[in-house]
Specification:
This protein has about 140 residues and is α+β, with helices and mostly antiparallel strands. The chain is built from three helices and seven strands. It has a five-stranded mixed sheet. β4 and β5 form a beta hairpin. It is elongated. The model has no long low-confidence stretch (mean pLDDT about 95).
């Protein structure tokens, strides 16, 4: 359930030239402010996403997003003391069509899944934002 307007949007199109290459992207100051508002925290000082996409060998036409996020989040400040956390989290997400997900339900039980349509576009920034949220609130 991806929101219509992501605060940290990085839409990629999965194609041969993208596969097995490492990419890094960082949130800019406006995106950090918007993410802090979304997650109701005092401040997000930084957010870096490192990722690469590879073919998922056991499901034809599916891919795996292998990624990590690094961030410093100040959850709140009380009496000049800040409650902050350093996040350094790795995650994998299977990228595939809705039909592939339905047809491979048993094999995908242990995986996080993101569905793309026929244009093979996926918002890796929004996926990273969702993982950041999990890290903040776990």
């Amino acid at each position: 359930m991806t929101p219509k307007c992501s605060e940290f949007s990085r839409v990629i199109e999965i194609k041969e030239t993208l596969l097995d290459r490492k990419f890094e992207t960082k949130a800019n100051s406006d995106e950090l402010v918007a993410l802090a508002e979304r997650f109701d925290v005092h401040k997000i000082e930084n957010l870096t996403l490192d990722y690469f996409v590879t073919e998922k060998q056991d499901i034809l036409g599916a891919y795996t997003l292998i990624a990590s996020i690094k961030s410093k989040v100040i959850k709140f400040i009380v009496e000049d003391r800040e409650e902050s956390m350093e996040i350094d989290e790795k995650f994998d997400v299977v990228l595939l069509t809705e039909d592939m997900a339905r047809n491979n339900f048993e094999e995908l039980r242990e995986f996080d899944v993101e569905v793309f349509n026929e244009d093979k576009r996926v918002d890796v920034g929004e996926i990273a934002s969702q993982y950041l949220s999990l890290c903040i609130f776990m």
